Amino acid sequence: MPENALSLLAKNYAIAHGRVIESAEGTDDRQFGRSMGTRVHSVAWQVWHIARWDDRFAEVIVEKTPELVGRVGPPGQIWATELLAKQWGLPVGRMGRRDTGTEMDDEAADALRLPDRAVVVDYARRVFARLQAALSALPVASMFTVMADDPDGDTYAHNIMLYLDHVQRHLGMIEALRGLQGAAGTATN
What we know:
Elements (H helix, E strand, L loop, with lengths): L4 H21 L3 H4 L10 H22 L4 H4 L5 H4 L2 H5 L17 H6 L5 H21 L18 H25 L9
């Protein structure tokens, strides 16, 4: 199958997701949950935050593209469907915008106690797989059309690039946190 804008974006998203998982799994349990200060949240927080927004993004893609429902399932978030905040004992409604960590008070974010690495990574893996399925199912012809009701009038391609940039920025934080704790990085391997 020839490459196109969508396949290239999906491919690069998969690479970024793979690096997040690899970095998370290469971080020992103690370092995974360790904060480097109230404004430098833990690797666990970074992975959770990436997954939360990608969970929301997968939901948006399916909501805005009804023909995907038959291929990837109904719109929804793994986070909400499985009541993970409640299962994990997290403060529902107090974790920033959409309970994703965005705009969360730094002290509250630093105090957030996420579950063990295996649990957070499992959630991230499942979210990443769902988002990849949604991206793979998108019609190539829709890439440069505006997503329905997009508040900024952005196209599918622009939204994908914005969310991919978000992953990359937080992957950089993960790599920096690992380096500060004496672990080797993985993003440039």
